[in-house]
Amino acid sequence: MPKPIANSRRVRRSALAIALTLALPFGQAAAQDASAAAQDASPGNPSDTRHDKATSLDAVVVTATPLQSSAEELAQPVEVLSGEKLDEARGATLGETVGKLPGVQSSNFGAGVGRPIIRGMEGPRVGVMTGGLASQDVSTVSQDHNVAVEPFLADQIEVLKGPATLLYGSGAIGGVVNIVDGRIAEKPLDETVSGRAEVRRSTVSDGVTGMARVDASGADGALVLHADGVYRNNDDYQTPLGRQRNSFVDTKTGALGASLVGDVGFLGFSAARYEDKYGNPGEPGNAEEGESPVHIDMRQNRFELKGGINQEFGIFSGLRASLANTEYEHTEFEGSEVGTRFLNDATEGRFELTHKPLGGWVGALGVQGFERTFQAIGEEAFIPKTKTRAAGLFLTEQRKWDQLQLELGARVDRVESSPQGEAKRSFSPLSLSAGVLWKFNDAWRLTFNVDRAERAPAEEELFANGLHAATASFEIGDANLRKERANQFEVGLHYHGSMFEAKLAAYQTQFDGFIYLVDTGATVEDNPVRQWSQADAKFTGFEGEAIAHLFDGAAGKFDVRVFGDTVRAKLDNGGGNLPRIAPGRIGGELRWDADSWRASLGATRYMKQDKVAVNETPTDGYTLVDAHLAYHWDSGNLGYELFLDGNNLTDETARVHTSFLKDTVVLPGRGVDFGVRVFF
């Protein structure tokens, strides 16, 4: 069990005080509207867990934005996964789940680890949120550390591409992935009891995954209770080259939540437990030489308190507040021997006020802050114990003139990192943003975005100094690193017609002082020395997606989807390429959807990556073919769905260029997942 932070009791007493202060008006309001009609399901109220047919994802509300707009109402590029598309995409890791969205790929350290990469950026540049608050794991410290979130419990996954520093601070300079899990209900349920469950079997790893989620309310609808859980047990997976040793995954996670809901607003609390054990395929061990395999045992406790007011008061139209306390620990074992323990205890709070129209402008004012204590104990303690405090103030505004919409925003942060035994570093990142959306007719819209975003260096970039066994290197930080600044320009074109939909985007990000890990060419005890360095750099990229609705008749609906993305990242002044940049790719898919049946067949071509950094090896291109088949029927108050998912059907040998293990670890070979889903 992880040790709680020293002030965790004080934090929970504060949370209780807030709850008691806010509960009275919410409870009164809930009683007043007990007889109100049920409201439509939304990401904040995922009570409708039946398997309804998916509509246009651009119309889904994006909860990661204060104004709760839909994707088509935002100038900022956003992708949303929900409904059937999310069911088909769910994987054991978050990166695997979102990895086929345009501009999004996944890191890889075996089957147990996959963090999202957005437009070539990863690690401390991409924020991973649950309900708008950071996951507060240590997945940014090392590529062998998984994200402490469970994709199988998500109602919706939102990806904000490009700088999201205005809303989420310094660690979102490359974008944000937000998980909407519905553990704290914000609206009354449509049904007294609703939920879903799923069981699946995987042939490639001889694995099984089971999940269940239940939401329930009393007769008056004022109190909403929630429970969920996932169990996953996968053995080492098979590849075209044989079994990938030490690639097993064993996950157990679950949560309980309770909310008071009403017309005035909501107040809720949730408690979650996440346990994840997985092997490091880069260190499978050698029994003949007495070497034991390395595996990670991760545990996290998370407590959240959220509240909101949906009615107008003064000049304001709404309020949202949230507080989370996280106790995280993972231990890296060499066989049964403890190698290194990583601890990360954090408390984060967020407060947002939306205001009524003022001179035609609507917007939100917010504050966000956190305190985090990170430490590594043991032979791989290459980073000293570090306490980090951060606080930010942000303002976003939006105004519409007929077909034109203007979005403006600004944020200032203060970040302080205090390593044990070393000098403290302080930073004041400033971020500014402007976006224009022009709907020049009902079908077409054009977007322009200009951003100036700054990021404070992370702990590992500043203070690393020692052997990092997971990446098989000796890492050296630089305590004198300055703020990283990104100036980005993006243009996007969207078309939404009855027979055809398409979106294209081109962007360029110029970094002043980009921080990256470079191979120096030196070695320490046969381990390469990698130095955190800083230099100007440029990212240039393109991405696009098109869907053609070919036929809609008695035989069902047929759609064709194509997509592609590419990013080029290099240092300025002839400094060469940046390391571990995701390769370009292009993909296509044919979908069929009838009353009870749906099926798809698709292929994605990953190009070779030979634009590599010094001392970095290239990777060959490969093509992954997948297929999906599902049959849905209803019986009484229950809905059932049998499904069959095929992956890498041509048994291609595939190496992920962004992985430190690409020369020794390949992706799973041909495999089939099959199972049943139940909705009630």
Structure description:
The chain starts with 7 loop residues before the first helix and ends with a strand. The chain has a 22-stranded antiparallel beta barrel. The chain has a 5-stranded mixed sheet with strand order 1-6-7-4-5. A two-stranded antiparallel sheet has the order 2-3. β19 and β20 (404-419) form a beta hairpin. The protein is mainly β and 680 residues long. The protein has 5 helices and 34 strands. Residues 1-42 and 44-55 have low confidence and may be disordered. The protein is 7% helix and 54% strand. It has helices at residues 8-32, 83-89, 94-98, 165-168, 459-463; strands spanning 78-82, 104-106, 116-118, 126-130, 133-134, 156-161, 175-180, 193-202, 207-217, 223-234, 238-239, 242-243, 249-261, 265-279, 294-309, 316-334, 337-358, 361-378, 386-401, 404-419, 425-427, 430-438, 444-455, 465-468, 473-476, 484-496, 500-524, 527-553, 556-571, 585-593, 597-606, 622-635, 638-647, 671-679.
